[in-house]
Design brief:
The complex is a heterodimer of chains A (387) and B (340). Chain A is of the alpha/beta class and 387 residues long. Chain A is built from 16 helices and 13 strands. Chain B has a seven-stranded mixed β-sheet. A four-stranded mixed β-sheet of chain B has the order 1-6-4-5. In chain B, strand 12 and strand 13 form a beta hairpin. The chains are: A alpha/beta (387), B alpha+beta (340). Chains A and B meet through helix 2, helix 3 and helix 15 of A and helix 9 and strand 13 of B.
Chain lengths: 387, 340
């Protein structure tokens, strides 16, 4: 634990905080309006809330909590498809824990489990393969979720299944990739972001190069960031330094983990097992070109979507949900009229209330909900025309 | 006698009688049970000598696996109910126990559980005076469920209430957080961690007794079981209309428990404990009380973890080791491991 504690040192935090305040002050001398900085990854969002990092920042900095929580952006129609698979009597449906509560159009995996579906929570896809070995008469399906952080382990599990000749194992593939998702945000005409904290663990796999377009084509600074609170503060200071100097570059704060080229064996396994989809729907963001992947043709026999019929129905988000606007930084979570009203962690309506890494769920858990509601009411009295 | 529990053991006939005599009566051996009546009977005058109020509580115990490092379902069933009485300021005296058994359970397993219950009851100075056994068909329950109810007596002058915390009071905790919750995750074996984490499952009536002797003006006390420390502090805050301010750096958490929480994205504040209590006491009494707690085997790692303050809106405020503050809410459902 010593290794972790070094990155939570309050004295170092104070120094980083002072540096951020100094930099922000200098930047604000020659601009108006807040600096909008997006942390893309749900893991960063979690750290920011858990350690109260927003309190340490000057008012001029607004953190925008991006779509990098794979559970949050899972479309409801895909959850329905997962449920259809899980409810087949021959299937043992396996998943990471945080997907259990994600609501489909009618129910979640947790509710389906209560109704009798054989759904099991795992910590690794290799555990699903073990289940397949132990239950040769059943079909074991793994709910493959996540950005490039979890993709290599899924890919390696498929390769292992192939080596062992295991036929009763398949993936329900919902992996998505980071760079096209960031690109979609940058292409949005409403976008006002000034810089990005890029996901450290994704970068550990894919390296620095896939983010170059952010700096080159969109002229936005980007810093690859670790997950401890000091990592976040240091990266924010690095972003501000770039903004102050008018630079837009890809910088790597998380050098202790991320190498420039990423992880080759991981990339190779991914390239073998997955191929890009033309378009993939992300909840709250709509359809994004080349964001999602599916299982490549040579591994089709491990694709649950090709093994079993699926409803495959697209289900739109409930009316009035403004998840997309929150994800793009146009409004804060509490400014959505559904927040803490009809949309709560107990009964999530929108994507961002679903997982503890979602921006709205984090606000709901860690902020003073009553104060936020009052703030929203006051804002709507002051500006009744605003949505 | 067969090696496994069958439906016959719950039928009210000979097999059940044999099970009761050979296992429960001999293990729990005490005069009330030996009367073989349908109810335990107590002399009121004797109870009245010990206090002026009766405390009565019940809890049911379901745990998978039945045996885990640091305890088992039997030990849990005794300590849980004893602790619920003790943190109300009662001296626990008598327990009932109800067993719901899935047919096919090895009798050796049941025997080990019953013996563990008796050993724990002796340690906690309580007597198991009445009981019941039901057997359900396979699949009707998971191996073994136990319910215990407990009766205790509250001495005159002791009046603990969660509504009485006041600004300026200090918050005390009797040791490491989250050991039980972490031990259960570990014992399920899915993680294959190197370190074994033992449950903190222990009776607290001795510790509570010493605490009340030293400091009868203790205001609130609760055991932090399901929902962990966070939930107890939340309840104190709501009931007393105060803010409970705790400091992360003062919270005792073992390295192996912290490690597991880091891996799984769990929060030790919400992990279950089975031998931990939280007390709110006037500041003037806190230092001496802390010494008394640390001198007791069940409180060796006790700590002052925070302070009660005035609240515009009652709640729990954590000062992180990082120097920032965040609100602590109750959990929404179960804590689920995160993937990234």
């Amino acid at each position: 634990m010593k290794y972790v504690d070094e990155f939570r040192d309050p004295d170092k935090a104070r120094k980083a905080q002072q540096q951020i305040h100094r930099l922000a002050e200098r930047i604000m001398q020659c601009r108006s309006g807040p600096l909008l900085l997006m942390e893309f990854c749900g893991g960063h969002t979690h750290t920011i809330f858990r350690y109260g990092i927003e309190q340490l920042l000057p008012e001029a900095i607004e953190l925008v909590h991006g779509p990098g929580c794979p559970v949050c952006v899972l479309p409801r129609g895909r959850v329905d498809d997962a449920l259809a698979l899980a409810q087949r009597p021959e299937v043992i449906f396996t998943t990471f824990g945080d997907a259990m509560r994600v609501p489909g159009s009618r129910q979640s995996l947790l509710q389906a489990k209560t109704d009798g579906a054989d759904i099991r929570m795992l910590y690794s896809p290799l555990d699903a393969l073990k289940l397949a070995r132990e239950n040769p008469q059943r079909e074991v399906i793994f709910f493959a979720l996540g950005f490039e952080t979890t993709m290599p382990s899924t890919a390696l599990t498929v390769l292992q299944a192939e080596r062992e000749g295991i036929e009763n194992f398949s993936l329900f593939c919902n992996h998505i990739t980071t760079a096209p998702t960031i690109e979609a945000i940058l292409n949005d005409p409403d976008m006002k972001l000034d810089g990005f904290l890029a996901p450290g663990h994704v970068s550990m796999v894919i390296g620095e190069a896939p983010f170059a377009f952010v700096a080159e084509r969109f002229a936005k600074p980007l810093v690859i960031t670790g997950f401890e609170p000091l990592d976040i503060l240091q990266s924010l200071a690095m972003l501000l330094q770039q903004i102050l100097e008018g630079r837009s570059e890809v910088e790597n704060q998380y050098r202790r983990v991320v190498q420039k080229q990423g992880n080759h064996p991981g990339q190779q396994a991914m390239a073998k097992v997955f191929q890009r989809n033309d378009r993939t729907e992300l909840r709250g963001l709509g359809s994004i070109d080349h964001s999602g992947v599916r299982i490549s043709d040579p591994y089709a026999r491990f694709d649950a979507e090709r093994k079993f019929p699926l409803p495959g129905v697209t289900v739109s988000d409930p009316a009035g949900c403004r998840c997309g606007d929150v994800l793009k930084g146009l409004i804060r979570p509490w400014q959505c009229p559904k927040f803490a009203e009809s949309c709560t962690p107990q009964q999530p309506l929108g994507a961002l209330m679903v997982s503890s890494e979602g921006a709205c769920a984090a606000y709901h858990q860690y902020a003073d909900v009553q104060t936020l509601k009052i703030k929203r009411q006051q804002a709507s009295v002051a500006d009744p025309g605003a949505h | 006698m067969s090696d496994i529990i069958t439906l016959a053991h719950g039928s009210g006939g000979k097999a059940m009688d044999e099970l009761i005599r050979s296992l429960f009566l001999t293990t729990f051996a005490n005069p009330q049970l030996a009367q073989m009546e349908d109810q335990a009977r107590f002399d009121l005058a004797t109870l009245q000598q010990q206090g002026d109020r009766l405390a009565f509580t019940t809890d049911s115990y379901v745990v998978d696996p039945l045996f885990f490092p640091g305890g088992d379902i039997g030990k849990l069933a005794v300590t849980g109910t004893v602790n619920d009485l003790a943190v109300g300021g009662a001296r626990p005296l008598y327990l009932s126990c109800g067993f719901i058994i899935e047919e096919g359970l090895p009798i050796a397993t049941l025997k080990a559980v019953v013996e563990s219950m008796q050993a724990t009851a002796r340690e906690a100075d309580v007597v198991i005076v009445t009981g019941d056994t039901k057997v359900v068909p396979r699949g009707g329950c998971d191996k073994l469920f136990i319910n215990t109810a407990g009766v205790g007596v509250i001495a005159a002058g002791i009046d603990l209430s969660i509504q009485t915390a006041r600004p300026g009071d200090l918050i005390l905790l009797n040791g490491y957080l989250g050991d039980h919750g972490a031990a259960i995750v570990d014992a399920r074996g899915d993680l294959a961690l190197q370190n074994t984490i033992a449950s903190d499952c222990q009776p607290l009536q001795g510790l509570v007794n010493s605490m009340l002797e030293c400091c009868p003006q203790i205001r609130c006390m609760r055991d932090a079981t399901r929902g962990g420390l966070a939930t107890v502090l939340y309840e104190f805050a709501q009931a007393s209309a105060c803010t409970m301010e705790v400091e992360e750096s003062r919270l005792p958490v073992r390295d192996e428990v912290r490690g597991m929480c880091e891996i799984l994205g769990l929060d030790p504040l919400y992990l279950a404990n089975e031998g931990k209590l939280v007390a709110v006491v006037p500041e003037a009494a806190a230092t001496e009380l802390l010494q008394v707690m640390r001198a007791h085997p069940a409180g060796r790692h006790s700590a002052i973890i925070g302070r009660v303050s005035q609240a515009s809106r009652p709640g729990v405020l954590l000062t992180t080791g990082f120097g920032s503050q965040r609100l602590i809410d109750r959990l929404t459902g179960e804590q689920l491991p995160r993937i990234c």
